[in-house]
Structure formats: structure tokens, C-alpha cells
Specification:
With 307 residues, the chain is α/β, with parallel strands linked by helices. The chain has a single domain, classed as Metallo-dependent phosphatases (Purple Acid Phosphatase, chain A, domain 2, 4-Layer Sandwich). The chain is built from 8 helices and 13 strands. Strands 1, 2, 3, 10, 11, 12 and 13 form a 7-stranded mixed sheet that branches. The protein has a 6-stranded mixed sheet with strand order 4-5-6-7-9-8, with helices on one face. Strand 8 and strand 9 form a beta hairpin. Helix 2 packs parallel to helix 4 and helix 6 runs parallel beside helix 7. The C terminus is likely disordered.
């Protein structure tokens, strides 16, 4: 087992906000692995091509916006290209290549871990959506067969240490509108996580896999029903798994000091996550703001104090 701490950058929903400076910022942060949760743009082929050129070990899943003109009837009506002669969804998949782990996995021998992907192009929620899209593209027609695709990826993983990467998070992280996958539009509340994703994670545990991190996005940190608080970004399970919602949108903000871009930084120390922070990087590629979301040492100190 690699005992050196691993530094991971999780890139939240991009929504067309990706520049060459993002690659330079990641280099400056000296991360070992980049996880991208999707929603790069509305089938933004050229932007995906730019991200695919990132020369840091990486894994990605696609989000619902990445099939915006293909998966739904209303989206197809707005499609800006000829779907008879072009397929921008397939182009994105081809461009991302083996770095795309949706319904699959990628082994990282140098890090001694495997990244397993959740359902690609997920819209989230308790109802099965995009039936024709998933049947045609992936041979999947319900949550059960979707979960089986992920479980098969788990079974083929080279390493016992698995990181799960999804666009939307799994069910089970809370019913409140402010929960990591909580429904923040009317009627308010309810778990809008992916049940197939939750099933795959549960099955992975029965196989004896170690799961330090489940990273996802989709449900933005800014809430629709209130501006007095942000969405809960992180949950830890009784098994020690950290569930991280990285969707801090907009990714790039304009300030008097210039542009700043955010990343979620995760430190993986052997079998567990030791720290998670949301950082903003300035134009000189230095971290200008850090929000500590989780620290295992702080929890240990708190436990010792309580004793």
C-alpha cells in the first residue's frame, strides 16, 4: 500500500467555466489525481477536448448537461446541430476515452487505488429518466440494471481501495432541502440522490472494498429557496467514507484582485480521508481563500476533549 498521502482535486460542475489557467492552477496545487464530476457544458465538445488534454492523472463522469440536446425530447427540439449526421454525446465520450469512468473504472497503479464511476449523464432523483437514451447507449433500462453496471466495475477493480465518482450523489445523505442531494425546489425537501449509485456503494462494501471517498456534484452549493445559507457540502458515514458534493458554481469568480477559480482538495492518507477543503486560486496560481470542510485530526481532538 502506498503510504504517502495522496492529494486529490475534485472539479465541481464546470458549466463552460474552464480555461487554460485551470490546468496551470492544478499543476501549481501539485495534485496527484483530478476527479471531474461533469456538466462541462451543453454538449460542449471543444471544452471537453481541452479538459481531456490535462496531463495529470484524472477520471471523469459526464452530467445531464453533457447530453442536453440528446437525452430528452425538449432538448432535442432545441438541438443546434443535425442529429442525423452528428452525435456530440458520442464525440465527448470518444474524446475523454479511458479517463471517462461512468459505468466503468480506471485503475491507478501509482496511487494504489481504483476510481469507479456512477451512472453517466445522471439527472438525479427517485424516478428513472432517459429510458430510450440509456437503453440505446448503455443497454440499461432501470435502476437495478444500472446498479449492476457499476457493481461489475467494482468487481473488475484492480485495487481494494476504491474512490467512487458520480455526477449526482447517492441516496441516503439526507431528506432536507439543504442536504448534499436534497431537493431545493418546490415542493421542498426529499432525497434527490441516485438509488442505483447507493446500491453499488453498498455492494462494494460487502465485497470488502475500502471506500474513503465518494465525490459528486450536480446539486449546486447555492440553494434556490434561500440565500441565507449554503447546501451541506460533506457527510461522513459510520464506515468512515467521506461523501463530498463539489458543485461550487460558478467555478470562476471575478474579484477586484482578478479572476479566482475553485477546487475541492482532498487529502487521502492510507485508508481514509484526512482533510477536505474548498480553495480559491488567484491569477498568480496561489491559494487566496481556504474553507476547511473536514479534518480527521480535528475530529480526533474533539473526541479526546469530550472524553
Amino acid at each position: 500500500m502506498n503510504t504517502k498521502p495522496i492529494k486529490i482535486a475534485v472539479v465541481g460542475d464546470v458549466h463552460d467555466q474552464w480555461e487554460n489557467d485551470d490546468a496551470l492552477a492544478l499543476k501549481s496545487l501539485e495534485v496527484d489525481l483530478v476527479l471531474l464530476v461533469g456538466d462541462f457544458g451543453n454538449e460542449a465538445v471543444e471544452l471537453v477536448r481541452t479538459i481531456a488534454e490535462l496531463d495529470i492523472p484524472k477520471a471523469a463522469v459526464f452530467g445531464n448537461h453533457d447530453a442536453w440536446y440528446t437525452a430528452t425530447e425538449w432538448g432535442r427540439k432545441k438541438c443546434p446541430y443535425n442529429r442525423q449526421t452528428e452525435d456530440w454525446v458520442q464525440e465527448q465520450l470518444d474524446i475523454m476515452g479511458e479517463d471517462h469512468v461512468g459505468y466503468g473504472k480506471r485503475d491507478f497503479p501509482q496511487l494504489q487505488l481504483t476510481v469507479v464511476g456512477g451512472r453517466p449523464f445522471s439527472w438525479g432523483g427517485p424516478e428513472w429518466k432517459y429510458s430510450d437514451f440509456y437503453e440505446e447507449r448503455f443497454g440499461v433500462n432501470n435502476f437495478a440494471t444500472s446498479a449492476q453496471r457499476m457493481i461489475k466495475a467494482v468487481q473488475s477493480a484492480r485495487f481494494e481501495r476504491i474512490l467512487f465518482l458520480g455526477h449526482n450523489g447517492p441516496t441516503g445523505l439526507g431528506e432536507a432541502a439543504e442536504a448534499p442531494c436534497g431537493k431545493d425546489w418546490n415542493p421542498l425537501g426529499g432525497d434527490y440522490g441516485d438509488p442505483d449509485f447507493a446500491e453499488a456503494i453498498a455492494q462494494a462494501r460487502t465485497f470488502g472494498k475500502t471506500i474513503p471517498l465518494v465525490a459528486f456534484g450536480h446539486m449546486h452549493h447555492t440553494l434556490r429557496h434561500t440565500k441565507t445559507r449554503l447546501r451541506q457540502r460533506l457527510v461522513t458515514s459510520s464506515e468512515g467514507t467521506v461523501y463530498l458534493n463539489a458543485a461550487c458554481v460558478s467555478r470562476i469568480r471575478e474579484t477586484p484582485q482578478g479572476q479566482q477559480r475553485n477546487f475541492s482538495l482532498v487529502t487521502l492518507d492510507s485508508e481514509q480521508v484526512s482533510e477536505v477543503s474548498l480553495v480559491w486560486v488567484g491569477e498568480d496560481f496561489q491559494v487566496v481563500e481556504t474553507e476547511l470542510l473536514y479534518s480527521s485530526t480535528a475530529l480526533l481532538a474533539q473526541s479526546a476533549f469530550m472524553l
